[in-house]
Write a structure and sequence with these properties.
Blueprint (H helix, E strand, L loop, with lengths): L4 E7 L3 H14 L7 E7 L6 H9 L5 E5 L6 H11 L4 E4 L8 H12 L4 E5 L6 E3 L3 H18 L11 E4 H7 L10 H12 L4 E5 L1 E3 L12 H27 L1
Parallel strand pairs: 1-2, 1-4, 2-3, 5-8, 6-9
Antiparallel strand pairs: 4-7, 5-7
Helix pairs in contact: 1-2, 5-8, 7-8
Length: 248
């Protein structure tokens, strides 16, 4: 029987968070365990993350390790997980408890309504972002503003990694996904989903900055800004060219 759900969890040096993450996901999706898998995509963590995933997989058959090799960026890990996934729906979440598996379940239910891509939004009504620094919060909101008005991605939070989509969405756009960092990868994913006329929407979620003692964030604003600017310019001119070709 084909799997319905693949939950992708990118990880790097998250050994102590693996078991609690599995427990929370299993508890939330307890009625669907026979139709799902949980894929931890490891970027060659030196702290024993992969070994911990393998240990847990011996007792929880839904858990599977995907080795992504070199640490090339969050987008690279996401794509490796998508390619390894066997489910009809692909859902993604972090392993640091900043997002709730209940949000993933709500996203899954929204896809059931007929949507192709559903993103958990921190910035729409009833959404929330707790604990982010002013600089990170402002930067994220500005990036999403740029995506809406320059790239035509009509979402308030296309950069959030808590999301779900149908497998055929990825199959249609995967050759367009050539970025490896965050938020560039998820922006590119949303842009091409719109370009291919997918049904895209978002639901409100609450994001909490990684709790103390749960490791450190792997995202560097300074490192990711230049790729974002380059991608934005490229996609903007792609959008202009598409409009010109349609009108002519």
């Amino acid at each position: 029987m084909p799997l319905e759900l693949s939950i992708i969890v990118p990880v790097y040096n998250e050994r102590k968070n693996i078991e609690p993450t599995v427990t929370k996901i299993v508890d939330c999706f307890s009625n669907q365990l026979d139709r799902m898998e949980i894929l931890f995509v490891d970027d060659d963590s030196p702290d024993g993350t992969a070994e911990e995933v393998l240990r847990i997989s011996k007792s929880i058959e839904q858990v599977r390790l995907v080795k992504n090799g070199l640490k090339e960026g969050l987008g690279s890990a996401h794509k490796a997980g998508y390619e390894a996934a066997e489910g009809e729906y692909i859902l993604t979440i972090d392993a640091d408890f900043s997002q709730s598996p209940q949000d993933l379940l709500n996203i899954k239910n929204k896809i059931d309504e007929g949507y192709d891509l559903v993103i958990g939004s921190r910035y729409m009504r009833d959404g929330d972002q707790i604990g982010k620094s002013f600089l990170k919060d402002s930067g994220s909101r500005f990036i999403n503003y740029v995506c809406r008005y320059l790239l035509g991605v009509k979402l308030k939070d296309c950069t959030h990694g808590c999301r779900g989509f149908r497998r055929d969405v990825f199959e249609k756009i995967k050759d367009k996904l050539d970025t490896k960092g965050h938020p560039s990868f998820v922006i590119q994913f949303a842009f091409w989903s719109y370009a291919y006329k997918m049904r895209c929407t978002e639901i409100p979620v609450s994001f909490k900055e990684r709790p103390s003692g749960m490791g450190e964030s792997k995202i560097s604003i300074r490192k990711e800004v230049p790729p974002f600017l380059a991608l934005t310019a490229r996609l903007f001119f792609t959008r202009i060219a598409q409009k010109f070709n349609v009108s002519n």
